[in-house]
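Researcher: Sequence recovery benchmark, item below. Answer with residues only.
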């Protein structure tokens, strides 16, 4: 049977969204390299100034690109996927465990570079560009699934975190795409539990903060089960507990690092977390420029509207969970949009999806069967 015209049109639009996403991502990366570069002199370069030994010293513009920030750490992971040389990350065992707890991006870079260290840099850039296109395409697919225009998928490209990944290289676009894939499998018209679990598990391996996604989905659905007209806890346990399996690979990897490095993940940079909600944001506000203010508007504007106006409680729960994450981020994260923008890229995604999603169909108990019609009794006597 031929596909419905609307479905064919939506598929075509999703494909175009992916192409546009790839083109825009490629243009952003090319724009960064379209400048003059001053490479350091290896003879006078003081080694040990970078947080990773991957490009120390840098001798190509692409190595300068990675040395701007955490990209150099993921380049190291792609060159050393089996953690044989953790000393390539500076700062001691706890810092190494902290930096290595996000292995997926480096592993994908290792695969994409065919294990060739010289090819790692461009392989990771290609992975990031492809991840941005995939993220836009999955957002478009979700929009189409909910009866919205697939062109809404392009809106996710306005997220500050997408720009950060493209000009500095990082795992957040890939992680957000995996979250989108998991939500498509979990919230779609036909639930696919284990593909959702696989996507969420990979997302947690890309960025540890994404453990909040499966945990929040379980919590929201457990809470919903207690509302009037909802099935009780036994059915919820059977339906929702598989999501906890998505946490197992991340926990196992942290244990591997603990055994191999002798330390739990603990970063050396002070001020990453704050016990007082949004005190880090308040402390950093004096150093904000226009870029930080624009990034804050792009992050919190849609999030607050989605929190109030969203119709799917599960997606609103994800928005709330990422706002809680934002609340405990410390001053060191809030100083620059290049830092808080990438951490909160999943917030941009779930805010958009919460604004697009319809209210879920009620999933209460099965209606009782209609009573059988009463039988008429023949009169007794003449």
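Model:
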């Amino acid at each position: 049977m031929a596909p419905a015209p609307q479905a064919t049109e939506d598929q075509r639009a999703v494909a175009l969204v992916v192409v546009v996403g790839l083109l825009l991502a490629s243009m952003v990366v090319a724009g960064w390299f379209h400048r003059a570069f001053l490479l350091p002199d290896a003879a006078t370069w003081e080694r040990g100034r970078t947080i990773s030994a991957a490009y120390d010293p840098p001798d190509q513009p692409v190595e300068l690109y990675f040395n701007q920030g955490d990209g150099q750490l993921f380049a190291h992971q792609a060159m050393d996927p089996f953690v044989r040389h953790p000393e390539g990350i500076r700062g001691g065992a706890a810092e190494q465990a902290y930096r290595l707890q996000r292995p997926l991006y480096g592993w994908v870079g290792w695969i994409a570079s065919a294990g060739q260290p010289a090819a790692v840099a461009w392989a990771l850039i290609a992975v990031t560009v492809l991840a941005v296109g995939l993220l836009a395409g999955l957002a478009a697919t979700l929009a189409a699934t909910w009866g919205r225009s697939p062109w809404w998928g392009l809106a996710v490209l306005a997220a500050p975190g997408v720009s950060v990944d493209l000009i500095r290289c990082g795992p957040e676009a890939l992680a957000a795409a995996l979250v989108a894939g998991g939500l498509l499998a979990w919230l779609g018209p036909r639930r696919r539990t284990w593909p959702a679990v696989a996507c969420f598990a990979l997302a947690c391996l890309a960025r540890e903060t994404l453990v909040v996604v499966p945990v929040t989905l379980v919590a929201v659905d457990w809470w919903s089960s207690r509302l009037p007209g909802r099935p009780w806890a036994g059915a919820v346990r059977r339906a929702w507990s598989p999501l906890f399996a998505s946490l197992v690979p991340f926990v196992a990897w942290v244990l591997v690092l603990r055994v191999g490095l002798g330390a739990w993940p603990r970063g050396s940079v002070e001020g990453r977390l704050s016990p007082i909600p949004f005190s880090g944001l308040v402390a950093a506000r004096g150093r904000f420029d226009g870029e930080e203010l624009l990034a804050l508007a792009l992050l919190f504007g849609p999030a607050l509207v989605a929190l109030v106006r969203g119709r799917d409680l599960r997606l609103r729960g994800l928005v709330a969970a990422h706002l809680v994450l934002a609340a405990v981020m410390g001053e060191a994260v809030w100083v620059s949009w290049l830092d808080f923008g990438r951490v909160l890229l999943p917030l941009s995604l779930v805010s958009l999806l919460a604004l697009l999603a319809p209210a879920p169909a009620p999933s209460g108990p099965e209606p009782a069967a209609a009573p059988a019609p009463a039988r008429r009794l023949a009169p007794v006597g003449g």
